[in-house]
Amino acid sequence: MPKLYTTDRILRFGDCDISGTAYYPAYMNILNNVNEEFWEHIGFPWHTTIKEHGWGTPTVHLSCDFNKTSSFGETLHFEMAILRVGTSSVTIKHRISCEGETRWICKQVLVASDLAKLSAIPFPDDVRAALLDWHVKADEIDF
What is the pLDDT of residues 79-98, one digit of tens each? Predict the structure, then answer.
């Protein structure tokens, strides 16, 4: 069984357009919040890495496929798999579902970045080790 990070989010009124359908920019904000929660879960909360250590993990690549709309009040289930851990980048695949039905899938690359110099840096050894602990092979997941 692959090691996946999972969490749930309820679609709030502010996440939706006037028809009650999830608004895709809100999806990106929710996805970012899930990423932030994951980093805290593995012991590297962003408020510490950014404020105390001066590095962050901006997104440098993002591709999404939307399979079906989601609506105000629904609970979305997020699954997150670490597919690749490089020297300074991490590739993540996300599946977002509701009641077992895939709503959207996303592939994302984050890069460790020195926030003062705005340039890529290697992950600290302890961060890289924590990410490798969550690494799965693409063929181990079904999304």
Answer: 999 999 999 999 999 999 99
Query: Rounded to whole angstroms, how far apart are CA atoms 57 and 39?
Result: 10
Whole domain around residue 28: which residue ranges? 5-137
Q: What one-letter code names the amino acid at 84?
A: R
d(CA 54, CA 51): 6
Global confidence as pTM: 0.94
Q: How does strand 55-56 pair with strand 113-114?
A: antiparallel
Is 142 domain-assigned?
no
CATH code (residue 131): 3.10.129.10
Task: Fill in the amino acid letter for 120.
Answer: A
Q: How many domains does the chain have?
A: 1
The torsion of the CA quartet 95, 58, 135, 108, rounded to 10 degrees, works out to 30
Quick check: is 143 in a domain? no
Cβ proximity of 115 and 54 under 8 Å: yes
* Three-state SS at 47: helix
